[in-house]
């Protein structure tokens, strides 16, 4: 069921502002802890450069201001990357749009680090909002690099917004981003003492006078790879009233999770790309409730924000409107259930991307991490902007050498989290193999969250390499050295658990990944993506139990 503005206003008139009025008064906060008027927090997560959503986001916020004077605007991270405007401007244009919207508090997502540490700090300074993160710490002096929380006053109550960023950023963001010139880590996201660290700043905010604590949590709602989630955060702490979640793109309207004292804590997440806008309400009875508003034509529009967005689009998007070619097929990154299939199996678009790198760079084998493929290619005309949406991270590409044994190890890392989604799952070209999911992973990850070695039975079987001379696949030679092509993110920056960390760079800075797609489509394929990319080829086969 879709809910527009009028449904939203009716909801607040009849439900939100009177929520929990039948509760036992003894269980409710006393005195000043109860707001004299409802407090509304408008929130989004994982916008990923979906810039057309900001005007409606601001419009919904403006409508709520007609209902109560206490309205806040927050972001749960991952806003600067994932689209053309973010890539072309290195995130600056996105921050400028957010400044036109007007945010009260923002936390960092993992993708806020995609343009490097210097640009991240530049963007946080440019943001006209309180940027909070309670677990981004320097290992040099053990100090936080941003404020852990900010406290805002709404009438007679004070609300703290505390930020948390996924510790897995250390893995997915590339080790070198967080290391000095010698490769020594100098930044931490406190994974080793995550809950203790979070509790410290929850307590500190309470002691400073916060009546309520809302966590802006870019953690996701699912535990994976030994990293915390928003659910485990709640269960291992006390003193949180509500958690606004991001990272996993999950749609959660209003869920309840119990903290380590048995107190109910609200958990909510909007999905991604402004598919929904979140509306969190603290009622005059002192209770939180949340509602998701689908962003559609019924939503009000902030005309000033919309005008600025159109200006940004005109200035940045025009650069990429040239047509590179056409596609006879549609290649998607998600299935009908929303599963990010490029992160857990062979996909036609993954084959296309990997083929582009292998052919343009003249390598024997190419690897593309599924997490870097961010958009579909639809049947019809394919513009440069289309390709930039597929590869929005502006990664440089390079060639390297790996032994057959090292390649087999890399494939083990690629599938070690299966059946879970994994941004480091490798889409391949010039290579095919089988996977037996019934075999427990034997991949060893070191203390720096990088691949160390394989110790035990292997999931990956029957690895074969394409022989260009015969056009046939032949068994990989563990002792032979092969030339590979991939992104500098994987080869030089040791991204995604260092899946290609043992590759030896041959030629670096050979261009941008998006330009490999453009050259492959425009020149190698003669401007046409054919029906051969309408289905998978059996490059990666998962054995059935």
Could you walk me through the main structural features you see in this protein, from its secondary elements to its overall organization?
The protein has 545 residues and is α/β, with parallel strands linked by helices. The protein has two domains: 5-9 and 38-315, 4-Layer Sandwich (Purple Acid Phosphatase, chain A, domain 2), CATH 3.60.21.10; 321-542, 5'-Nucleotidase, C-terminal domain (5'-nucleotidase,  domain 2, Alpha-Beta Complex). Helix content is 25%, strand content 26%. It contains 15 helices and 28 strands. It has a six-stranded mixed beta sheet, with helices on one face. The chain has a six-stranded mixed beta sheet with strand order 6-7-9-10-12-11. Strand 23 (460-467) and strand 24 (472-475) form a beta hairpin. The protein is globular.
The overall pLDDT average reads: 90
Overall structural class, as computed from helix and strand content, comes to alpha/beta
CATH architecture of the largest domain: 4-Layer Sandwich
Taken as a percent bin, the fraction of beta residues is 25-35%
Total number of distinct structural domains:
2
């Amino acid at each position: 069921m879709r809910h527009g503005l009028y449904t939203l206003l009716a909801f607040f008139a009849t439900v939100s502002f009177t929520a929990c009025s039948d509760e036992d008064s003894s269980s409710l906060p006393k005195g000043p802890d109860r707001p004299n008027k409802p407090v509304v927090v408008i929130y989004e997560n994982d916008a990923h450069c979906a810039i057309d959503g900001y005007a409606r986001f601001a419009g919904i916020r403006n409508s709520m201001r007609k209902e109560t004077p206490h309205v806040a605007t927050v972001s749960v991270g991952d806003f600067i990357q994932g689209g053309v405007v973010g890539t072309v401007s290195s995130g600056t244009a996105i921050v400028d749009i957010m400044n036109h919207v007007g945010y009260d508090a923002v936390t960092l997502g993992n993708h806020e680090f995609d343009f490097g540490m210097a640009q991240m700090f530049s963007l946080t300074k440019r943001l006209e909002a309180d940027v909070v993160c309670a677990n981004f710490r320097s290992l040099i002096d053990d100090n936080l690099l941003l404020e852990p929380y900010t406290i805002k006053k709404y009438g007679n109550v004070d609300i703290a917004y505390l930020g948390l960023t996924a510790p897995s950023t250390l893995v997915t963001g590339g080790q070198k981003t967080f290391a000095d010139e010698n490769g020594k880590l100098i930044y931490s996201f406190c994974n080793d003492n995550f809950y203790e660290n979070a509790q410290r700043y929850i307590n500190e905010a309470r002691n400073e006078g916060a009546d309520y604590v809302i966590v802006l949590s870019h953690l996701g709602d699912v535990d994976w790879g030994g990293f915390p989630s928003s659910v485990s955060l709640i269960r291992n702490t006390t003193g949180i009233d509500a958690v606004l979640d991001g990272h996993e793109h999950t749609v959660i309207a209003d869920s309840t999770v119990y903290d380590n004292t048995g107190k109910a804590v609200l958990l909510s997440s909007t999905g991604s790309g402004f598919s929904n806008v979140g509306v969190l309400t603290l009622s005059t009875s002192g209770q939180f409730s949340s509602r998701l508003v689908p962003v559609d034509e019924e939503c009000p529009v902030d005309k000033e924000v919309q005008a600025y967005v159109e200006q940004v689009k005109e200035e940045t998007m025009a650069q990429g409107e040239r047509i590179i070619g056409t596609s006879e097929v549609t290649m998607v990154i998600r299935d009908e259930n929303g599963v990010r299939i490029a992160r857990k199996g062979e996909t036609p678009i993954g084959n296309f991307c990997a083929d582009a790198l292998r052919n343009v760079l003249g390598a024997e084998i190419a690897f593309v991490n599924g997490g870097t493929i961010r958009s579909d290619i639809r049947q019809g005309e394919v513009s440069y902007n289309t390709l930039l949406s597929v590869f929005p991270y502006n990664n440089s590409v390079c060639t390297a050498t790996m032994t057959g044994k090292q390649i087999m190890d890399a494939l083990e890392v690629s599938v070690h989290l299966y059946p879970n989604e994994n941004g480091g799952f490798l889409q391949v070209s010039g290579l095919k193999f089988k996977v037996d999911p019934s075999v427990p992973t034997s991949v060893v990850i070191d203390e720096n969250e990088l691949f160390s070695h394989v110790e035990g039975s292997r999931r990956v079987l029957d690895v074969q390499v394409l022989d260009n001379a015969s056009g046939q696949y032949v068994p990989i030679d563990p002792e032979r050295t092969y030339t590979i092509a991939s992104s500098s993110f994987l080869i030089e920056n040791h991204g995604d658990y260092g899946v290609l960390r043992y590759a030896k760079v041959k030629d670096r800075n050979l261009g941008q990944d998006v330009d490999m797609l453009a050259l492959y489509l425009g020149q190698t394929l003669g401007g046409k993506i054919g029906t051969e990319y309408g289905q998978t080829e059996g490059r990666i086969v998962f054995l059935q139990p």
